[in-house]
Amino acid sequence: MEDSAPRPIRSVFAWLVGASQVLGLLAVVLTGVWMGHYRGGFAWDGSAQEFNLHPLCMVLGLVFLHGDAILVYRVFRNEPKRNVKLLHGIIHLLALIMSIIGFVAVFDFHRAGKIPDMYTLHSWCGMATLVLFCIQWVMGLMFFLFPVASSWLRASYLPIHVFCGLVLLVMAIGSCLLGITEKLLFSITSTYSQFASEGVLANILGIVLVCFGVLLGYLITKEEYRRPPNPEEESLSVHFKTLTEGGSSTF
Amino acid sequence: MEDSAPRPIRSVFAWLVGASQVLGLLAVVLTGVWMGHYRGGFAWDGSAQEFNLHPLCMVLGLVFLHGDAILVYRVFRNEPKRNVKLLHGIIHLLALIMSIIGFVAVFDFHRAGKIPDMYTLHSWCGMATLVLFCIQWVMGLMFFLFPVASSWLRASYLPIHVFCGLVLLVMAIGSCLLGITEKLLFSITSTYSQFASEGVLANILGIVLVCFGVLLGYLITKEEYRRPPNPEEESLSVHFKTLTEGGSSTF
User: Fold this and answer.
1) Rg from Cα positions in chain A
2) Of B94, B92, B76, B96, whose CA–CA distance to B144 is shortest?
3) Domains in chain B: ranges and CATH
4) What is the pLDDT of residue B228?
5) ipTM (interface predicted TM)
6) Contact: A119, B193; criterion CB under 8 Å
7) Chain A hits for B122, Cβ within 8 Å
8) Residue A203 to residue B124, Cβ atoms within 8 A
């Protein structure tokens, strides 16, 4: 479907989306290089190589796929809403599966190595993010994909769902940064302060994740990039205008 | 000036603002207790007690005061815009002074103890936040308090200023969480995993900071809590409607 936005807005938007994908993929690649090259690769046997799946799955699932699942509402803002909703739900499902694999990997590694669980700030923030992400996904499924709630309830829940989605993306990125710091201080305590290449690479990964989050936040919240009102969908969809005084965006 | 919003919206808003202040002050108090009780108090002599000023100043300046400086646009949304702008700038100035004291304290401590600087992800994120915060403050001063720029430039810069303000608050909170993790892993490595009271207190501080950020984010971005349009100010102020297609908020 033809984009109704003026050409300069479309062009800037396309560049920003492209940049966000480069940053997101770069974060996944840097995590893979860190764990694959510096930390001995991957396995599923309770060893440190099983732990290595944890950062990779979390960056891929809770950050990159989670961010892209939100972004589809902006990228495909002129496509039929039902298709975009379905894509949003499917990418979130992939994100959820990756996150659960990452979650199991770290607890399996801790159990095998008799390492205590859930005492660090990273584990508290990460667990809160994953639990809330699961709740958000189930609620989204019930309210919007298989609407069991009334139109009024869906309309009331929509702005909360949108706000929580962005908060959870930020929390996921924050938890990753805490995990990076924790892993470096556990693994390369003596050489980190001498700017060991592993430490610099992991720090750069952290900065790339922050940039990905800022760019996604900009693309998601900028008024011009929101889904334009579509009169044909008005009777079927939930519309922000009915919720907020003078608001103009649809989701 | 009388608030034009309906009574239930005013009431929920007041409770949420109250809760944000409780969380913000709680974060400052918890940081004070952590540094004062567990880490030996405060001094200005290059010792570990001088370092202890760093977390306290950063939580007070870059998080609590920074958040409140943004919040004044919502709390005093029916007061004359000039007064609110002035208050916004003054609280930000206090935040900047506190942050610079905190910044000097940690570098002074590192110099005295011959501890390397700027190698951790916390230091990279924290430095980026502080530098961008300084730039944001100077730009805000030039554009809005002593307007040296044209109306068109001010109007173009306003949404960027607003977006960056919220991003910097999130980055400040993220940097604090990284600092908490770093400090705990440097100081109580052996007892952290046994849920030592210091570790639990610092983790709770981290969660309180996250909750403060989420609540501030909600209060700042919610459409109903934005400054209502004021025809008397229209000719003097920058109005979002001229910037974004169909937007309704003023700043």
Assistant:
1) 20
2) B92
3) 7-226 (1.20.120.1770)
4) 80
5) 0.91
6) yes
7) 181
8) yes
